[in-house]
Input
Amino acid sequence: MKRILVTGGAGFIGSAFVRYQLETYPDVHVVNFDKLTYAGNLDNVKGVDDKRHTFIKGDIADAGAITEAMKGCDAVVNFAAETHVDRSILGAAEFINTDITGVYNIVEAAKTLGTKRVLLVSTDEVYGSILDGSFKESDPVGPRNPYSASKAGGELIGLSYFHTFGLPVVITRGSNTYGPFQYPEKVLPLFVTNAIDDIPVPLYGDGKNVRDWLYVDDHCSGIDTALRKGEPGQIYNVAGGNERENIVLTHRILELAGKTAALIKPVADRPGHDRRYSIDASKLHALGWQPKMDWDAGMALTVKWYRDNEWWWRKIKTGEYLEYYKRQYGGQ
Ligand code: NAD
Ligand code: TDX
Output
């Protein structure tokens, strides 16, 4: 694998994956194809080795553009997606366009070009909520919001290309990911950056929903393991192994930001809010992958990163972001 097309490589996890490839494999060249939506940001790949990184601004929903970018690539790893559940509740059209039609364009281009490996990055949300135990890859999908439904749709299109055309598609389903460069609409960066400015943190419902936290570099190494060692047609869960109630996460964020619980503002629950996500990653462990980051250490370094890098998030928390914030939280 010498030339890898990374779609969505200017986003949170995609940009970490670009850095991971360039740092881990000295012979790899990354072609980074990204639409630069509100969530895409070239600051996320600032300073990467220009000689081994080519950036193309483009849309995976544009079949011609994605086919052109894929020419000469040994593999494609798709991160490009609309990713925020609350935005999918406000309007799902872009989710269907990117997360389903975009994935269709990627597998169709790969089939035409004979691309040797297609990795579709997906999410634990496609299983839906589970109160006891953990989902395995053989369990049926049961997505319950427009975001997770569109991700499941993209997966199914991808798998159909494996079964029908023998396209070497591999899918990963990661759990909630955290770390530097995450767009501050997601709970962790939203709460940290609000807390720094003494703005209340809007906690949905009773705060007892559970998410399994996975450090971003561990998510990248999990995807890389599936890319290089996974079997075509297979799905691999990538779990952090750090299940926490949102209220526990919130207290930790506030503590690390040097603030008190007085900033917690209980607000109306998210419609269809999945109670608990939990996945079993033993299939990926069998390929030799293990997450390395301890939750306490990961939380401390992540909150510190947002405290130290206001240059990155202050300019994001303007314009479109403020309009979204008002729409989402304004009435509360
Ligand atoms: P993000 O929102 O930070 O970044 C998404 C990137 O995709 C942005 O750079 C954006 O510009 C780009 N993009 C969006 N639409 C595009 C299009 N039509 N064409 C080309 N580029 C487009 O997302 P993230 O959190 O880094 O998530 C990356 C992937 O990982 C997604 O597929 C997501 O479903 C999946 N995932 C995320 C998490 C998480 O906790 N963040 C967990 C599991 C899986
Ligand atoms: O303001 C908030 N208040 C709040 O209580 C926000 C934004 C979230 N929450 C809660 C909802 C969830 O239980 O925090 C939890 C995490 O929320 P998000 O950060 O929005 O993530 P989630 O909905 O769990 O989805 C994430 O994980 C799976 C990513 O956004 C997805 O892209 C990924 O696929």
About this structure: The longest strand covers residues 117-123. The pocket of thymidine-5'-diphospho-beta-D-xylose (ligand 2) is lined by residues 83-86, 123, 125, 176, 186-187, 190, 202-204, 209, 211, 246, 270 (CB under 6 Å).
